[in-house]
Design brief:
By secondary structure, the protein is an alpha/beta fold. The chain is 52% helix and 11% strand. It has a single domain, classed as Rossmann fold (3-Layer(aba) Sandwich), CATH 3.40.50. The chain is built from 14 helices and 5 strands. GO terms for molecular function: hydrolase activity.
Length: 235
């Protein structure tokens, strides 16, 4: 199993930001992640992604059909689906998407007191994980990288997804989608599975009785669902 920091996050390489945000696009990031898997000796592998990671997993499935065998996406809809359905409820609940997309201001706000902004908890995270997290959020380059991920999402990534739809490109691999019933995905959009059926040839999935951090709050249910869908070499 390979668990990667996303490009720009944690200890990963930090792409140099570009005015069009291409360097932090999911297309560019998926290419880096596939290259990393190849360098680790895995030519074909399955992918699981949660939240921001799910957008990279989706891009890997769409752009690297010969490499990605199966996909699991957790708490995810395509970015363009969110934006095309955006209303006051979405803007209120997901306001950070639009704040993070602003130039310069988010960096000034967050780096003034990263701990207060991100609010990590050493008791729930564990001391080692907390120390790793704290080092990351106090690195201005990591903060910039995370913000550029969101900036790319609202611009180049959404454009790429709409171009995919216009061209009839779909997820061809078996796709599993899971979502947290205690989060707001169903409240905002109804049945997420119905939306994914417009994006994939072979999709299954359902909600899980957990909060947004499904891997922490419902690990047994998650393990039953995504066994074999991890970032690893296919058997």
């Amino acid at each position: 199993m390979v668990c990667a920091d996303l490009p720009g996050y944690g200890r990963s390489g930090k792409p140099t930001p570009t005015p069009d945000h291409w360097a932090h696009s999911k297309t560019a990031g998926a290419r880096r992640l596939v290259t990393a898997m190849h360098e680790l000796g895995h030519d074909r592998f399955a992918v699981v992604g949660h939240d921001r990671g799910s957008y990279y997993a989706l891009r890997m499935a769409l752009d690297h059909l010969d490499c990605v065998t199966r996909v699991a996406l957790l708490d995810c809809l395509p970015i363009s689906e969110h934006l095309d359905r955006a209303d006051a409820r979405f803007a209120t609940a997901w306001w950070h998407w639009f704040f993070f997309a602003q130039p310069h201001l988010p960096e000034r706000v967050i780096t003034a007191d990263p701990g207060a902004w991100y609010r990590g908890d050493p008791d729930s995270m564990g001391v080692e994980n907390y120390d790793e997290w704290r080092a990351a959020i106090n690195d201005p380059e990591v903060v910039r990288g995370m913000l550029e991920d969101y900036r790319a999402g609202l611009t180049v990534d959404a454009d790429h997804e709409r171009a995919d739809r216009a061209a009839g490109r779909r997820v061809r691999q078996p796709l599993l989608v899971l979502w947290s019933l205690q989060d707001d995905l169903e409240e905002l959009y109804g049945d997420p599975l119905a939306i994914w059926q417009d994006w994939a040839d072979n999709v299954t999935g359902h909600g899980i009785d957990s909060g947004h951090h499904v891997a922490e709050q419902a690990p047994d249910a998650l393990a039953r669902e995504v066994g074999g869908f991890l970032v690893t070499a296919s058997q």
